[in-house]
Amino acid sequence: MGFGVVKGHCGDPSGLGNFDWSSLATLIAGVLAGVIVLLGLLASSARARLDNRRAVYSEAIRAVSDYLEGPYRVARCHNDPDQRFALSRDLSEIQGRIDAHLVLVELHAPTNVFEAYAAYVAVARREAGVQMSEEWKKRAPTRRSDMNMEQPFDRTESNRVKVNLLDAMAGDVRVRWRLYRLLI
């Protein structure tokens, strides 16, 4: 027994056996189907990540917007200790949501988006914080006419920073590659 050339199945010297053009077409069709399924899964996964990031961004902005409403809520707060306690508790919960969203944005967003969000939070806290502090010192409203705000609270700085934040977020969630656009 010597070592010789091992021949393919059925004595075929090519080693392909009964592999012919129809077998090649079947193989190509299977590989193509696999590639299409893989591209679909990749597109679906990319879409889910994008949708998740959009949800994180919208909730992060909502938390800051709720905080910016604080001065209005304080201005309309009566001298009732229960109402003041409830308002203080609500504002503390809003602060907690803002802190949680700072972490979420830092984890899920590019650095430029996180920095823009952190700047928005800082400006909103400074702007609304001063306004709430001033409103707590004022006499509590006692009549319905006292509830009307003669002039809205200034949001110049927070609105300016918010525009920068929205630009950064829009740049992040924009679909960038053509193949993905074809698949969705």
Summarize the structure.
The chain has 184 residues and is mainly α.
Question: What does this protein structure show overall?
Answer:
Helices cover 74% and strands 0% of the residues. It has 184 residues and is mainly α. The protein has one domain (22-183). The N and C termini lie far apart (62 Å).
What are its keywords?
mainly alpha, 184 residues, 7 helices
Which secondary structure elements does this structure contain, and how are they paired or packed?
Blueprint: H1 21-68, H2 70-75, H3 81-108, H4 111-137, H5 144-147, H6 156-173, H7 178-183
Strand content: under 5%
Principal-axes geometry comes out as rod-shaped
Are there runs of 5+ residues with pLDDT below 50, and where?
none
Mean pLDDT: 83
Number of domains: 1
